[in-house]
Design goal:
The protein is built from 12 helices and 10 strands. The protein is of the alpha/beta class. The structure holds zinc ion (ZN).
């Protein structure tokens, strides 16, 4: 099952109307506080664009993450208060229409004519499998660098006086992404196992392609919405048995029940491979970064795929 390209919210427009009429004063107050804090107000949808905007904008931007911590990203739908947040921002950055099909409708509720809307997937080739489009572009570290550049350009457009600051931060950050990309390439070219067997949804397609791996998940499509069939799970159990793999990877922020089933059938150990869609409350509090998640993933892949 593919995620719907455009979801309709029958109540959505009504919610916007009630928002205009019964606009809560507290929301105005909070937004005003944020404005008083100075700098560009940037609202992003998912964690990667949130972190990229922070790395590029540093102390000259106030970045907020629309997704509440701990929320599974594919199931997210905005509340009227989220539309208020977007409406109050200088820049709104989303991952792309296949990751956030709700954006098109949400923007209809935005009246701020000065809002700069940034589609971070622009210029990135979207992968298609079985007629479904894969939204997980950020897990290809080449794509991630394109996203960072796009974000830097958007910040410069809204704040031209600091244009050099943003472009030099983006260059510096992209150098770090490129260095990690090189480490992934070197490490993952020398593994005994060549298939990334994932007990979560198919999030690592771009990643696997970049590093010459196969990616297997029992979930159809690219979101965890539909439960996998017993047949799909049995197929992965067979693959693990045949390959002698000792680890099965699972996704962040969801109960790994499918991966646990595969693990108990095969004796393989569970291992978190973080797709960085969103963060938990603790991860956010501890200042987790995209690079940190990717570095931890590298360490785990090295064990799970039995790399040199
Ligand atoms: Zn996903």
């Amino acid at each position: 099952m593919c995620p719907l390209i455009s979801r309709r919210f029958p109540d959505f427009i009504i919610a916007i109307f009630s928002l205009v009429v019964f606009f809560p004063a507290a929301v105005f107050a909070n937004a005003q506080d944020a404005k008083d804090a100075g700098g560009l107000q940037v609202v992003t949808t998912l964690f990667p664009t949130y972190d990229f905007a922070k790395q590029v904008g540093k102390d000259k931007v106030n970045v907020s993450l629309l997704l509440p911590p701990g929320i599974e990203a594919h199931a997210f739908e905005p509340k009227p208060s989220d539309i208020v947040k977007i409406n109050k921002a200088d820049i709104f950055i989303y991952t792309g229409k296949y990751m956030e099909p709700w954006v098109e409708d949400a923007l209809k509720g935005v009246s701020n004519r000065n809002l700069l809307v940034v589609d971070a997937s622009a210029g990135i080739e979207i992968a298609v499998k079985d007629g479904c489009r894969d939204p997980h572009i950020w897990l290809d570290l080449g794509n991630a660098q394109v996203m960072v550049e796009r974000i830097a350009k958007a910040l410069a457009r809204k704040d031209p006086a600091n244009s050099d600051f943003y472009s030099s931060n983006a260059r510096e950050y992209n150098t770090r992404l490129a260095a990690l990309d090189k480490r992934f390439k070197e490490t993952l070219s020398g593994c005994r196992q060549k298939t990334l067997i994932y007990g979560g949804h198919s999030a690592f397609g771009y990643f696997a392609r970049r590093y010459g791996l196969r990616h297997d998940s029992p979930y159809a499509g690219f979101s965890p919405d539909a439960e996998p069939t017993p047949k799909a799970i049995a197929k992965l159990v067979d693959k693990i048995r045949q390959s002698g793999m000792k680890h099965v990877f699972h996704e962040e922020l969801l109960d790994p029940k499918v991966a646990r089933t595969i693990a108990s059938e095969t004796g393989a150990h569970l291992m978190l491979l973080h797709g960085a869609h969103n963060v938990s409350r603790d991860e956010l509090k501890n200042g987790a970064t995209f690079l940190q998640f990717m570095e931890e993933d590298l360490d785990k892949l090295k064990i799970g795929l039995e790399c040199k």
